[in-house]
Amino acid sequence: MTRRRILPTLLLTAGLAIGGQPGMVLIPAGEFQMGRTKTTDDDSTGMRPRALLDDRPVYSVELDAYYLDANEVSQADYAKFVSATARTAPYHWLGGEAPEGKENYAVHNVDWDDATAYCEWAGKRLPTEAEWERAARGGLDGKDYPWGDESPNNKARFNTPEGPGPVGKYKQNDFGIYDIVGGVAEWNSDWFERTYYETSPAKNPKGAETGMYRSIRGGSWSSGPRRVTVFFRNWVRPNQKSPNIGFRCAKDSE
Q1: Residues in Cβ contact with 231 at an 8 Å cutoff, skipping those fewer than 6 apart
Q2: Phi, psi (5° rounding) for residue 197?
Q3: What are 131-166's pLDDT values in tens digits?
Q4: Is 128 helix (H, G, I), strand (E, B) or coil?
Q5: What torsion do the CA atoms of 105, 109, 117, 251 make, to the nearest 10 degrees?
Q6: What CA–CA distance (Å, rounded) separates 182 from 198?
Q7: Could you give the angle at the alpha carbon of 164 between the alpha carbons of 159 and 167, nearest 5°?
Q8: What percent of the chain has pLDDT over 70?
Q9: What's the CA gap between 202 and 143, in Å, rounded?
């Protein structure tokens, strides 16, 4: 399969995507290969559970341009939302306040409704799975990680017992996106459907119309290297609150 490196047209001025909002980057319209392009030794043996094959078949997806937050939403960001809306704070915030010294850490222990409400309050929305994956790939088709195929060691927060960390710590990818693998797994807008890649529309797919679970992508601080890739899909109930799950927001291009 041909691997294409698509250089983004990023319209950035001091972190402001022109036409977007501060802290967002413009992901240009274009086509990319969605899904896992490589086979593993156990694919052909039948030993790999079918649920872990839901990142296939690979197919071409065309997306309109959109904006995406360069960073995961931080606890400081979320604190402004809680203050403005009186929404219940994450359960690990003692006294309803973000932990002192960890204001710049990725927010977590928020469910899908919390994440959706925050994005709407900010004039944004959650990204679709396709938007998330295109941004995560950074224009690199056929690669395992946002930076290529090299090990995630020292490139992402993963496989650690220490929990979520600060946003923006690791190098951005070629689209200007930070920490999109590792750190915290990120809520997407899609209902999860295991076989969706087999029937998905080729342009601007938005996921199944209904379901029991919502999609999360990117792995987290507790994940091994095979789960902090750009293609690994996971799913949880929308009311799940976990120290492993946070989010970032998207916005339509204007």
Answers
A1: 35, 36, 37, 55, 133, 144
A2: -65, -20
A3: 999 999 999 999 999 999 999 999 999 999 999 999
A4: coil
A5: 50
A6: 27
A7: 115
A8: 87
A9: 20
Peptide bond into 57 cis (omega under 30): yes
Token representation of residue 20? 């977007």
Tell me how long the chain is: 254
The Cα 133–Cα 233 span in angstroms is 10
Task: Measure CA 8 to chain center.
Answer: 18
Phi-psi map region of 179: left, alpha, beta (phi>0 left; psi -120 to 50 alpha)? left
Structure tokens at 71: 């960073």
Which comes out higher in pLDDT, residue 114 or 42? 114
For residue 204, give the DSSP letter: S
Tokens of 210: 């209904």
- The first and second tokens of residue 243, run together, are 């120290």
Residue 244, phi then psi, degrees to nearest 5: -90, -10
Inform me whether the pLDDT recorded for 10 exceeds 50: no
Please, are residues 240 and 111 in contact by the beta-carbon 8 Å criterion? yes
Structure tokens at 158: 């993963």
pLDDT tens-place string over residues 226-240: 899 999 999 999 999
What average pLDDT is seen over the chain? 90
3-state class (DSSP) for residue 47? coil
- Cβ-Cβ contacts under 8 Å for 73 (sequence gap 6 or more): 106, 107, 115, 118, 246, 247, 248, 249
Which segments of the chain does DSSP mark as H helices, in order?
Answer: 75-85, 112-121, 129-137, 196-199
CATH 3.20.20.140 fits 12-71+105-252, yes or no: no
For 166, list phi and psi in degrees, rounded to 5.
-70, 150
pLDDT grade, residue 41 (50/70/90)?
A: low
